[in-house]
Design brief:
Helices cover about 60% and strands about 5% of the residues. By secondary structure, the chain is mostly helical. A 4-stranded mixed β-sheet has the order 1-2-4-3. The longest helix is centred in the middle third of the chain and has 23 residues. The N and C termini lie far apart (about 45 Å).
Amino acid sequence: MPSPAVQVTIDNRARLMSAALSATAWPEMEQGRHRHRPHIHARRTAQRVAGLAGHPAVVTLQGLLDAGTPLERLFTYALNLTWPDLRLAGEFAWAPSGWNDGLRDFSEQAGLAAWWDEEDALWHRAVEQMEQAVQPADLARFFEPFVGPVRQALVAMPNISFPSDAEIGVRLPGTLVCIMPPRVAWGDNEPWPFDDDPATVLRGLVMAYGRLLIQGYLREHAAEAAAAARDPLSVDPAVAARFPTWDEQFTWLFGLGAVPIFLEGTMGQQEADAYILMESKVHGATMLPGVVSVLRQYLAGYAEGRYAGLSEFLPGFSGQLRAAQDTIAR
């Protein structure tokens, strides 16, 4: 069984994909969603590679972004390359042939190895900060009542490049990876250091690992998930448009609801309540209190032996959530 501790590391393959992103229109797309100031390393990297926007590897990446390719898929591709020769391990039918060779040439033309050496102090400071933030995180134990024993190693990488506003979860054989930026601040303020806001770091870990673990669990329990899907989830139209299937909606709701339960057990009720308030009032996740209530019902039943696993609870989840939402609305 892997260690329950989260291993914090730096991966050059992820840094390469981040640097390539900075040469695309991605930084401008982020600012279009909400204005914020990326980490100084991200800004410097974008300046360094600006002249390579027409490089074939960057043009390919921009095309994939324009086609709606998720970041998780792009970074999964990157983490399936060998380093430093960037040979592709595995089959990626969606990826253009030879893209790995183009990324290697992009890296060489941008002088990324030398650049990372120059910026080494910033990267290692981020690692040290994240290590401080994740110290209380026994995520394997937290997820076990939901998905059974977590047999994968849990790895986290602080990302001070791009994307600068979202964590990314990647599933590798025997390992789950969370690539996470620091918390953005408002306007032109610098982002928060990782150890100044450990609750946000833990939130990102729960969301990223939770998505990966629940996706795998639903695949393993497809029959129970199919039975549950016969009773649709009462999600907002915007959520339904973003996550069209029951499995996708449940995965999103699970991650959303698992965060405050974990924060309460790790950092206390105040952090959990602050998260619920922020997500419900500021980000519009009005379903969150109901989701938390239903997940707590499951955990209570699991502790009492009424459920051997989450699969036994799934067929009634939609109904339980409607009841919880009705109760909270009164």
